Amino acid sequence: MENMLFWWIFFTFGCLFVDGSEMEQDFMWPLSKIPRVVSERTFHLTSPTFAAEAKMVLNPVCGIECHGELPAPSLSELEDSLSYETVFENGTRTLTRVKVQGLVLEPTQNSTTRGASARRKRQVYGTDSRFSILDKRFLTNFPFNTAVKLSTGCSGVLVSPRHVLTAAHCVHDGKEYIKGSKRLRVGLLKMRNKARSKRRRGSKRSRREATGGDQSQGTRENLKVRTRAGRRKEFGRAQRVAEGRPSFQWTRVKNTHIPKGWVRGGRGGAALDYDYALLELKRAHKKKYMELGISPTIKKLPGGMIHFSGFDRDRADQLVYRFCSVSDESSDLLYQYCDAESGSTGSGVYLRLKEPDKKNWKRKIIAVYSGHQWVDVHGVQKDYNVAVRITPLKYAQICLWIHGDDADCTQG
Q1: DSSP bridge partners of 39
Q2: Rounded Cα distance, 34 and 232, in Å
Q3: The dihedral of CA 40, 46, 51, 52: what is its sign?
Q4: Is the pLDDT of residue 239 over 80?
Q5: How many CB atoms lie within 10 A of CB 214?
Q6: Where does the record locate the signal sequence feature (predicted)?
Q7: What pTM, to 2 d.p., does this model score?
Q8: Cis amide leading into 143 (omega within 30)
Q9: Cα(367)–Cα(388) distance, rounded to whole angstroms?
Q10: Which positions ≥6 away from 77 have C-beta within 8 Å?
């Protein structure tokens, strides 16, 4: 346990394990020329029914080798996939067509498959290496304070004062919006105020006493029993507050953006490469958020590691942190065996790298955790925990969603 705690502190606070072949300049944020994604035309669509179950409906997932063997998509195909739906708080929906400017099409990157491994059946592989973050000093500070919980049961990450990045399947199953996403809310962790809890308890007691004077003797006796039970409940609640137990501050979502690459409807299956969505909050928060970054290749990951925090369902609203090495990659996906359970999907995968031409190090979001998937690798079914990489095109699209067409997103 002490050894695991050492590595947790080691990776959490950004220390790098550097051997003779890994120098500091190898771990810098990549300078990428970002193409521009601009809105072309917006159409009104019929309102969705919000009737789907909260699970993904995917065609068989293209294996790692597909990304190296299939022809690269054309510009028109990319523009179609990057066009997006927006569903608003009142249930209305639009489709926005986009144009991509300044993109140089390159051959699809070949995969670097590292050999087959034994079939696994769970999202927690072997020894559970997750850490529950319980200390309020960590919960309320960067980077852990950027993790949020969705009312649909997923996780997300703050990427601006008003925006949350999450997985598309947390609100849409690939064909229809899921139940509960119409009145979608985002929960931000906060430490409960002990004094406020006491004031609330006092006001409730005053109301009971005010109404008890006009009741019959029997009613007053019953009221006293209920009041004593209420006091015991409040006492227990006050104890939890004194221990610094966190709670969620829930904020309604104003609108949700989902790429058309995911929202295929009846014309085809959702593409795992586009399993990401952006939520705009009705009310801005005051927490420090995490900026977006372009996902580097495996060779440019410090120690080959990635990190993410989310609200795994088996840990009762605790924030759970984990890190692990990436096993493989394609042009759009990271394949890894980070221990994670349902509820953590939608978490922001991040790195801490050095800013080019600067001395400071910075954490940025480089992928969205999508969850457990079976994929075909050279004809063999293998399972991974998969994350969707933020490529230059996706960076440009998310930047458009956050800032609008006037945004300068030319450098990632």
Answers
A1: 98
A2: 59
A3: negative
A4: no
A5: 8
A6: 1-20
A7: 0.79
A8: yes
A9: 5
A10: none
**Beta-carbon neighbour count of residue 22 at 10 Å?**
14
> How do residues 111-160 score in pLDDT, each as one tens digit?
333 333 333 434 665 566 677 777 777 888 889 999 999 999 999 999 99
Q: What is the pLDDT of residues 92-118, one digit of tens each?
A: 999 999 999 888 766 544 433 333 333
Which range among 142-146, 217-221, 340-344 has the greatest average pLDDT? 142-146
In this structure, what are the phi and psi dihedrals at residue 265, rounded to the nearest 5 degrees? 60, -140
Q: Are 148 and 250 in contact (CB under 8 A)?
A: no
Residue carrying structure tokens 């144009």: 99
d(CA 105, CA 116): 31
Task: Centre a 10 Å sphere on the Cβ of residue 121 and count the other Cβ atoms it contains.
Answer: 7
Owner of token pair 């006493």: 209
What sign has the CA pseudo-torsion 381, 387, 392, 394? positive
Task: State the Cα torsion 71-371-366-109 to the nearest 10°.
Answer: -20
Within 10 Å of residue 318's Cβ, how many Cβ atoms?
A: 16
Phi, psi of 210 (to 5 degrees): -65, -35
Q: CA angle at residue 163 from 158 to 168, to 5 degrees?
A: 90
